[in-house]
């Protein structure tokens, strides 16, 4: 079972990895966006770190709902509403439970993904975070009988999704202003989503 | 009276625009949502929601929202999702250019224009009457 404390460690790990990747994400975004993805995500996740001490003793739903609300108000770019919606849906799915089983974990991530798609209206091959999140959630669901290997498969699937769309032309967000010139650039949103699934794997494995 | 809501990434940009509108149409209520809660460049759904609600409180005939760039649309949509149905029917979102659309809309609203009329003038393509008619169409300086 996964406790609220485990999830809190996942968010800490995600915040630390985003902070470490801030320059890389900003560089990727300066090629095809407005050079703010690293700065925005780091600002949002730093704000989450300040919330965690007050939330890790409570239920998983509150932890992720508060995370979502904070990201919506602090991140700024399109990633604020998108990651904010993801965590809000995750929080709604987990409700007042303080211990989450593997099946509930996968269902929560499925709900989060559906929220991101409903909010951003991006599909596969639009070259967004959805291209990393769809295969990652599918891998998590497919292997959920063995949680550690499912988490590993999800992280690998996210990275493969991220790399698969690099040659494509972006169709959403600021990157779409560039048209054909966006082809060949790795997508910053798919990159931060890959970091999310790698953080989940590493944080839960450490527990 | 119809109010305007200005949504953008830069608080400084919007406060400058608000000052211009106050000069052109001092009667028109204008509320702004620029930057994030952390004071950074960007947009924030809660700030946009507050600005829309403030505009609706000032303006019985509704509010027209203008945004600086398409990347503000996601936060705007999230904010509008939180409005009550009675509030939503009094809101229109403009596809017009922020600066020129806001100036046209503010003047129309000050003159007593209805919600549809304020929206319509805000969406006139920018630049159509910016330069004298006899200037070259290809952008070369006149003369």
Could you please describe the fold and organization of this structure?
The complex is a heterodimer of chains A (207) and B (143). Chain A has 207 residues and is mainly α. Helices cover 71% and strands 2% of the residues of chain A. Chain A has a single domain (2-206), classed as Alpha Horseshoe (Serine Threonine Protein Phosphatase 5, Tetratricopeptide repeat). Chain A has a two-stranded antiparallel sheet. Chain A is globular. Chain B is α/β, with parallel strands linked by helices and 143 residues long. Chain B has one domain: Phosphotransferase system, mannose-type IIA component (Rossmann fold, 3-Layer(aba) Sandwich), CATH 3.40.50. Helix content of chain B is 43%, strand content 13%. Chain B is built from six helices and four strands, in the order βαβαβααβαα. Chain B has helices at 11-24, 45-58, 73-81, 85-88, 98-110, 115-122; strands at 3-8, 30-34, 63-67, 91-93. In chain B, helix 1 (11-24) links the parallel strand 1 (3-8) and strand 2. In chain B, helix 1 (11-24) runs parallel beside helix 5, helix 2 crosses helix 3 (73-81) and helix 5 (98-110) packs antiparallel against helix 6 (115-122). Chain B is globular. Chain B starts with a strand and ends in a 21-residue tail after the last helix. In chain B, 43% of the residues are buried. Classes of the chains: A mainly alpha (207), B alpha/beta (143). The interface between A and B is medium-sized, with 22 and 20 residues.
């Amino acid at each position: 079972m996964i406790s609220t404390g485990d999830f809190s460690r996942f968010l800490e790990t995600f915040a630390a990895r985003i902070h470490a990747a801030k320059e890389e994400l900003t560089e990727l975004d300066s090629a095809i966006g407005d050079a703010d993805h690293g700065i925005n995500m780091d600002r949002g996740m730093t704000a989450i770190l300040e919330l965690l001490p007050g939330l890790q003793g409570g239920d998983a739903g509150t932890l992720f709902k508060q995370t979502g609300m904070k990201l919506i108000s602090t991140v700024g770019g399109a990633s604020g509403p998108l990651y904010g919606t993801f965590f809000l849906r995750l929080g709604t799915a987990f409700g007042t439970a303080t211990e989450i089983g593997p099946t509930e974990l996968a269902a929560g991530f499925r709900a989060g993904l559906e929220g991101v798609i409903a909010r951003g209206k991006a599909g596969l091959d639009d070259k967004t975070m959805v291209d990393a999140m769809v295969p990652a959630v599918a891998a998590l669901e497919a292997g959920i009988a063995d949680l550690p290997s499912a988490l590993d498969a999800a992280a690998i699937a996210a990275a493969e999704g991220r790399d698969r769309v690099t040659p494509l032309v972006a169709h959403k967000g600021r990157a779409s202003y560039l048209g054909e010139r966006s082809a060949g650039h790795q997508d910053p949103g798919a990159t931060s989503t890959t970091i999310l699934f790698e953080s989940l794997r590493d944080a839960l494995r450490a527990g | 009276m119809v109010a305007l809501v200005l949504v953008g990434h830069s608080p400084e940009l919007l406060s400058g625009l608000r000052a211009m509108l106050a000069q052109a149409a001092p009667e028109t209520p204008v509320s702004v949502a620029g930057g994030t809660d952390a004071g950074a460049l960007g947009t924030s759904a809660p700030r946009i929601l507050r600005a829309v609600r403030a505009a609706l409180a000032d303006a019985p005939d509704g509010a027209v929202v203008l945004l600086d760039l398409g990347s503000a649309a996601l936060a705007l949509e999230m904010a509008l999702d939180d409005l009550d149905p009675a509030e939503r029917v009094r809101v229109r979102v403009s596809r017009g250019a922020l600066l020129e659309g806001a100036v046209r809309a503010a003047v129309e609203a000050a003159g007593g224009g209805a919600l549809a009329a304020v929206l319509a003038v805000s969406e006139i393509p920018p630049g159509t009457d910016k330069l004298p008619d006899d200037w070259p169409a290809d952008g070369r300086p006149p003369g």
